[in-house]
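Database export, one record per block. Field names are fixed; values are copied verbatim from the stored entry.
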Amino acid sequence: MRAERIATSVYQFVLFILTWAATFILGLTPFLCAAGSLASIAAWLLCTYVYSRHATRLGTGRLWNFAATLWLWWSLWVFGELFMDALHAYSDVPLHHDAGYFVRLTGINPAVVSITILAVMVILGVPFVRVARQTLATEGFGG
């Protein structure tokens, strides 16, 4: 039974890779569905890096607290967006949600998409926790 589930998962993964390869040869529609989330992740990572390196120059006054609060709010927004994408992979009406539309176009199992998105959230949690800890140590977030 376990071997059958592993074989099914491997089959779905190979099917996913082949679907993506065929889609890139024929068109870019699934990539465009994922582009919004990928752009959000790239922008957040870039700004988190810049914030962690240069925000300490702002000192500990109001400008520092404003930058820290803005970064925290945006971080929670990005994580919320990714979480909603993971839920929307199971959407019955995928035309309103990129993740659901991506699932419909590629034919991939929605669980694979959701687990991948949740794994990305866990990976992004590492820089989030590190920068949040640095911010709190320098009296950010109104501390």
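Remark 1: The chain has a mean pLDDT of 77.
Remark 2: The longest helix spans residues 110-137.
End of record.
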